[in-house]
Write a structure and sequence with these properties.
The complex is a heterodimer of chains A (271) and B (288). Chain A is mainly α and 271 residues long. Chain A contains 13 helices and no strands. Chain A is globular, with a radius of gyration of 22 Å. Helices cover 43% and strands 19% of the residues of chain B. Chain B contains 10 helices and 10 strands. In chain B, α5 (156-170) packs antiparallel against α6 (178-184) and α8 packs across α9 (259-267). The chains are: A mainly alpha (271), B alpha/beta (288). The A-B interface holds A 4, 6, 11-12, 15-16, 19, 110, 114-116, 131-132, 210, 213-217, 220, 228-229, 231-233, 235 and B 8, 11, 14-15, 18-19, 22, 79, 81-82, 85, 88-89, 131-132, 147, 149, 152, 154-155, 186-191, 195, 199, 202-205.
Chain lengths: 271, 288
Amino acid sequence: MNRRTFPLGLPPGGIITLVYIAFIALPLIALFIRAISSYSLWDSLTSDITLTALRLSLITSLISMIIVVGAGIPIARYLSRRSGPFSRVIDVLIDVPLVLPPVVAGLAMLMAFGRMGILGDALDTAGIRLPFTTAAVILAQIFVSAPFFIRAAKLGFQAVPRELEEISQTLGISPWRTFWRIAVPLAWPSIVGGLALSWARAISEFGATIMFAGNLSGRTQTMPLAILSAMESDVGAALALAVILVAASLIVLFVLALAATRAAVPAGRLE
Amino acid sequence: MSCRIVTIHTRHIRYLLIMMLAVSALAVITAAACASDRSEGAATLRVFAASSLTDVLTEVSEVFEAENEGVQIEMHFAGSSRLRAQLDEGAVADAFISADPRHIDAIAHLLVDSSITTVATNEMVVALSDSGRPIQSLEDLAKPGVKIVIALQDVPAGRYAHALIADMAQQQGFPAEFDDAVLGNIVSEETNVRAVLAKVQLGEADAGFVYQSDIRDTGLHSLIIPDQNPGDIAYVGALLRDSSHHDTAQAFLGFLVSEAGQRILISHGFLSAEAFSINAGVAMAATP
């Protein structure tokens, strides 16, 4: 095949990609430039509110991810083996939080778990009050972010050839060991990719949180809420918070991207 | 040979088509954005207003549109402080009505000085949720376990509420450390007063500091906060210098302080602007 020469040496897809990258990068670059040129950046970066919100965001999103992965892997594995109308309905249900506006998700959670909610009395009897607590922040994050993980992990498990697992089992290796030695390593890039998406959604979660958990520094005020609160008084502080959030997110996403490519190969070896 | 030429040709055409599609898509998006931004056949006024004015200004603008043919009013409601920040960042509007004169002062350089007018006043109350623990009096707000929602301190409704809580603590009949106890009971700081009201209406909070006008149509019980200085909570409107519809915007502000406008405001639980007007004369003169 002879290679066509394109203007700028790029095929159409490449040029559109370039335009797209510029479209995404420009606002982020502008954000950084404005934040850096703002003289109060350092003060804002080290202020109590910023550090408190950052800590809360990292802790809550970490707990959310532990739960999402812990429950999501068995769910994804189960769904990857099912077909038929029933499982298609489940698939759609699992995706519902993706299409809900987050504020609606928060409202719906209040209707279920709030003081006046369907489970309100039962929870109250058990001494559990969720609204306005850190637990509510975590529940909101799980609600909106879990579908990203489950979807990706399910596709990952579906791509694992059935024969490999069957062979492994005929060799007398237990299903549990087969799962960890074959299915998980082969689905690894999808699992980690799903985790990255899911975590990104959790850390940026805003609407459901402010609805269901409220906004109180140290208890429920995560980074996105702190940014919006800062907008009420000081755009400079809001910019600083935004820059931290973007930077922290980039670091986590890069680490996860590395994990997806690196760990997949050696762990995939059969012993 | 000819086959290859044809292939190159189709590729070429496909390439061009994709690029044209991309460019035209961009053009359409930009055009649509511009059109919705500033389509000037008839005058479209864009008014930024404090969220506590949501219901009343929606009604006022309907009346104003009916009386002034060809005029369209686009209301944009949010906490006054956010609106101020947005204007400061270059958001385009014709008029700004703040729930706190401070936010007018803060962006005075963007506003037409002579247009600054008090359009209404208000008072704070404590809205009580139907459920939850029984709160009989303001003192009960200091009881342990009461869930109080308040607006952020940088939002007018939050600033007023904090000032009133501090005032109450100084008064007779209130327990010592009343203010600390109440502040300790705050479970959420909302970004605007309507969000505070929503949390009370949903029954998740026991009490919330809102404006008297906010609870007008909600059927919620409320506690009156005594000894508020009349006119302390003032809604101040002004025209933006960069507005391209000064006359229409001025007429809108004028309508708000006119008898008809004030009647609507009062019917929604606001107090009249009259006694506290900073610059009413100018606005009155422009009343259509």
